[in-house]
Amino acid sequence: MTVGIDQINFYVPRFYVDMAKLAEARQVDPNKYLLGIGQTEMAVSPTSQDIVSMGANAAKDIVTDDDKKQISMVIVATESAIDSAKASAVQIHNLLGIQPFARCIEMKEACYAATPAIQLAKDYLAQRPNEKVLVIASDTARYGLQSGGEPTQGAGAVAMMISHNPRILELNDDAVAFTEDVYDFWRPSGQPYPLVDGALSKDAYIHSFQESWQEYARRHNKSLADFSSLCFHVPFTKMGKKALESILTDDIDEETKSRLTTGYDAATYYNRYVGNIYTGSLYLSLISLLETHDLVPNDTIGLFSYGSGSVGEFFSGKVVEGYQDALDIQAHKDLLNNREEISVETYETFFKRFDNLEFDPETELQNEQNSIFYLESINDHIRNYNTLN
User: Fold this and answer.
1) Binding of substrate: at which residues (predicted)?
2) In the chain, at which residue ranges do the beta strands (DSSP E only) sit?
3) Does the annotation place 148 within a ligand binding site?
4) How many domains does the chain have?
């Protein structure tokens, strides 16, 4: 009996800023953003969308009434925690109406945490054939206005139902993790924005990928020829491409190089229009691959997960026959295509309101066409959520 991803969905706020216009406002050559880091648009989070509401919005369309009875664990992976004690999974569990006898926890290791959450879910379900685990990756990537990291911001969430006999991706028992203590990106308690060593961060990412891939290939006697496609953690689309290119050496045949390069472009299409969503970036890339690329049953997909600080992991999954039937491709396209572009000036206003927890429902919700959860207010440090029908 196999375990894997039975359902997968994502949510992004309905506002975005055009990267070319942001570049112009920052007096930067637009190609530095469009080509240099490979980003076209960047999701912008209003104050009314935090990790709880985004996570619940990503999950609500894939959690059925039967699922609510079978889910025995909810795990939220995030590095945008809103509380140092209470897990956001508890609040999402409540919003979704999941049965009360379920474990709810939050996990942290920079952008990596969704991957150990999935591995934990897989191991947990091994002896529980009638149960399911809901894994959610939800984050708002923020570096500060006019900072070096500003063009690699974003916001969004990915929800995954992990179960037996999955309809999308069967997870293989082959994960290899690599840990190295490095200060490439970190956010001390109380700091509103992370501290980043940009050059070191890129080097640490590629080093982690090479180490985990090489050990994976050694342990399991695998080569790149064994994979239909590879997915990467994508803080920006050129980052994963640099990692991929680092192993497409001269001894790799041209067909494999072409296949993996084409697959990478498909796997980063959605990310190009969303930006960095930290823990969810790898899994948004997986959705993009599944929905924009030609795959056949039993194709093996390699996945590289990375979290600064740092932990990397390479693992794989096998595409399930009929996987397209479990995807809502049109809904995902509509979600991206029906967003509202805001000016750089408005984006800056949104950014400051988010930092100061200033709510403006008239602006943020007036043109919302979807039924969504949203953060309505904060009173005495208690967050109050509501539903827009």
Assistant:
1) 148
2) 3-11, 15-18, 41-44, 71-77, 103-107, 132-141, 154-164, 169-171, 176-179, 185-186, 195-196, 229-232, 300-307, 311-319, 340-341, 372-379, 382-388
3) yes
4) 2
Same domain, 203 and 284: yes
Q: How far apart (Å, rounded) are the C-alpha atoms in residues 134 and 136?
A: 7
Do 308 and 366 have their domain in common?
no
Same domain, 120 and 265: no
- Rounded Cα distance between 78 and 99, Å, is 23
Is 334 annotated in a binding site? The answer is: no
Is 79 an active-site residue? yes
Among the three residues 294, 324, 354, which one is the final residue of a domain in this structure?
324
Q: What is the pTM of this model?
A: 0.97
> Residue 13 and residue 22: Cα distance in Å, rounded?
18
Q: Is 333 annotated as a binding residue?
A: no
> Are residues 185 and 104 part of one domain?
no
Range of the domain at 180: 171-324
What is the per-residue pLDDT for 61? Answer: 96
- Per-residue pLDDT tens over the stretch 62-110: 999 999 999 999 999 999 999 999 999 999 999 999 999 999 999 999 9
Q: What is the pLDDT of residues 299-350, one digit of tens each?
A: 999 999 999 999 999 999 999 999 999 999 999 999 999 999 999 999 999 9
Q: Is 11 annotated as a binding residue?
A: no
15 and 148 housed in the same domain:
yes
Q: Last residue of some domain: 278, 309, 324?
A: 324
The label of the residue with tokens 């997986």 reads 286
Of 207, 233, 293, 332, which is the active-site residue?
233
254 classed as catalytic:
no
AA identity, residue 329:
I
pLDDT for residue 367: 85
Dist CA 195 CA 180 (whole Å): 18
Q: Which CATH number characterizes residue 273's domain?
A: 3.40.47.10
pLDDT band, very low/low/confident/very high, at 57 (cuts 50, 70, 90): very high
In terms of domains, do 300 and 357 share one? no
Active-site residue flag, 164: no
Q: Does 29 count as an annotated binding residue?
A: yes
Catalytic member of 111, 170, 313, 332: 111
Q: Are residues 179 and 162 in the same domain?
A: no
Q: Please give the share of the chain, as a percent, with pLDDT higher than 90.
A: 96
Whether 48 and 109 share a structural domain: yes
